[in-house]
Amino acid sequence: MNILRLGSCLAVAILFLSASFSTAQAQVFKPIHRPVYTYYEEPIHPSMARPIKFGVRAGLNVSDWSGEAAQTLLATSKLANGALAKDTRTGFHAGLFVIVPLGKHFAIEPGVQYSQKGVTAMGTVPVEQGEVTILQQGSATARMSYIDVPVLVRAYVTKGLYLYAGPQASYLAKGTVHVTAGGATETNGYQNDINVKDEFRSLDLGVVGGLGYQFHNGLGLSAGYDYGLSSLDNSNRYDAQNRVFKASASFSF
Predict the structure, then answer these.
(1) What does pTM read for this prediction?
(2) How many domains does the chain have?
(3) What is the CATH number of the domain that holds 61?
(4) Within a domain: residue 94?
(5) 93 lies in a domain?
(6) pLDDT tens, 81-111?
(7) Residue 109: beta bridge partners?
(8) Of 10, 143, 158, 246, which is most buried by a Cβ count within 10 Å?
(9) CA distance 25 to 184
């Protein structure tokens, strides 16, 4: 009888230990729900909406004018008629932007930024020396300062890498043509700044496109092209448009 009672106690103890081990094992090997990675710059849990982000951007401009750029500069500067060589103007841009998510693969990015544009033409400049006017080799640089307002669409190709494109409206805040001839200073040459803002359209419409990469820490790099659609000449005498290559660094938070 004692043997049977002892066996019953052992059976109950074994069943209790087995049930306890099964419960502990289920807790140890509880499945882990990992976040779902999208093409956006950070992992997003299925139950969380992607946040709106704000950012700052700055970078290099390499600008040019297409079309009748030389004729436009001839009309707004002291460059004499004749053969002209055209060159780009280097400037910068800086501003703010907002990233508004649209699903997993797209986002809207409106922004505003200050942007230096223009072009340089080399040729001859009529310089008065006493009662005589002589032609000297010189240059005229259009220094145009715009406030750009782009509304872009981001399309994520892979995680972090995206393409962007969209319309842009640009307001001409300042426009001068810097003319030099004969030397680098007033003492041995000719220099003059001509205000030409009223001779150019205040509003320039265009399109923007490029590609960029967004890192997890908020840093971003991008390169793009501004293609102006509006004629710059306010009097419609000449047909010239803005062309700008931009390389940027940004930070979003």
Answers:
(1) 0.78
(2) 1
(3) 2.40.160.20
(4) yes
(5) yes
(6) 665 788 999 999 999 999 999 988 999 999 9
(7) 152
(8) 246
(9) 83
The position carrying tokens 């069943």 is: 15
Name the burial class of residue 106, with classes exposed (0-12), middle (13-18) and buried (19+) by CB atoms within 10 angstroms of its CB: middle
Structure-block tokens of residue 70: 């030389």
Contact 109, 154 (CB under 8 A): yes
Long-range residue pairs from 131-135, CB within 8 A, at least 24 positions apart, any chain: 135/80
Q: How confident is the model at residue 238 (pLDDT cuts 50, 70, 90)?
A: confident
Give the span between the Cα atoms of 224 and 152, in whole angstroms: 12
Question: Which pLDDT score is estimated for 10?
Answer: 47
Closest C-alpha among 192, 202, 187 to residue 234: 202
Residue 87, in any domain of the structure: yes
111: left (phi over 0), alpha (psi -120 to 50) or beta: beta
Residues 196, 179: Cα–Cα separation, whole Å:
12
Strands 53-67 and 203-214 turn out to be unpaired
Tokens read off for 201: 């359209």
What's the rounded Cα separation, in Å, for the pair 207 and 47?
36
CA–CA gap between residue 16 and residue 23 (Å, rounded): 11
Its domain, for residue 239, covers 53-118+146-176+198-252
